Amino acid sequence: MIEVVAPGSAPGSPAGALAGRPASLSGVPSLLSGVPSLCSHAALAVGVAVLALSLAAKLAGRDETLAIWPVTGVARRFAGPAQVTAIEALVVAAMAVPLPVPPRLVLIGAVFTAYALAAAALRGRRCACFGAWVPARFTWRHAAACAAVAAAACCGLPGGEPPGAGSADAAAGLLLAVPVAAWLRRRARAAAGGTGIPAEIDHIVIFTAESCGFCAALEAQRRRYEAMTDRPVEFRRAESQEDARAAGGVFPAAVAYDTAGLPVAGPAHGLAGIRDLLRRGAPRSARTTEARVDA
């Protein structure tokens, strides 16, 4: 076997061994040394962008978020929409403070670890992370995506980035969130417009559930909601699996039906969504009546 030895180095010495190493392997350590820095940039930029989008969506569609929030019972006191929104706002605000990069990464990592665990525990339930902008249900993909951001934050801790780099990453995340939020909002409005009341609507059913606190508030304003449209409105307590499926599994919900009893619009979820579904089909006379009822 012939050993390639660097000039001036003895055979078998460390220098000689390095000189004999293939060129393709000699750059691996330098490439790997840049991974923590890359993870740090990605975790901060993506994490801040997602949190800013989530915060904007919850604030823009507060009624919808409250109606579809998946956490119920005692746990809602600690993980309700108000608490989660406040935490997201605090984390986004902390990213604007000139903190060192490691504390920023710890915050992002902790939040997205909690999100990953919540997504895994709540899989199958309605996801209210982005309010009504992104209607979805929790799956393992949600948990994996949140875990990936948390893992990137942990990987970035040894990166040793200067504080200015963390601020730049946070600013990049906020700048990315602005156009994405505008696009998601337009898309949600367009989708809501697509559920407007067609001419073949015969009646509208508003589904409620006994365990839904917002349903009681809606039923208490029955006359107001009935006055929002000239179509007959039926309030129905969902007591069967068929009713639950018709409502999309989320309450309160409104579904518009034709004369044959087939759904032609909806289901619209949340108080604001139900109002939109009723009002889009209301003629001027019905809207005037609604105003009189409100007065």
* Major sheet strand order: 4-3-5-6
User: Could you give the distance between the termini?
Assistant: 97 Å
What is the helix content? 55-70%
**Helical segment tally?**
15
* Rg, alpha carbons: 27 Å
Structural class: alpha+beta
SSE arrangement, N to C: HHHHHHHHEEHHEHHEHEEHH
Q: What fraction of the residues are assigned to beta strands by DSSP?
A: 5-15%
Largest sheet, strands/sense/barrel: 4 strands, mixed
Low-confidence stretches: 15-20, 284-295
Total count of strands: 6
Overall pLDDT: 80
Outline = elongated
Textual characterization of the structure:
- The protein is an alpha+beta fold and 295 residues long.
- It has a 4-stranded mixed beta sheet. Strands 1-2 form a two-stranded antiparallel sheet.
- The protein has helices spanning 14-19, 23-26, 28-33, 35-60, 62-68, 75-79, 81-96, 101-121, 140-155, 163-193, 213-220, 222-226, 241-246, 270-280, 284-294; strands at 126-127, 136-137, 203-208, 233-237, 253-257, 263-269.
- The model is unreliable at 15-20 and 284-295 (pLDDT under 50).
- The protein contains 15 helices and 6 strands.
- Strand 5 and strand 6 (263-269) form a beta hairpin.
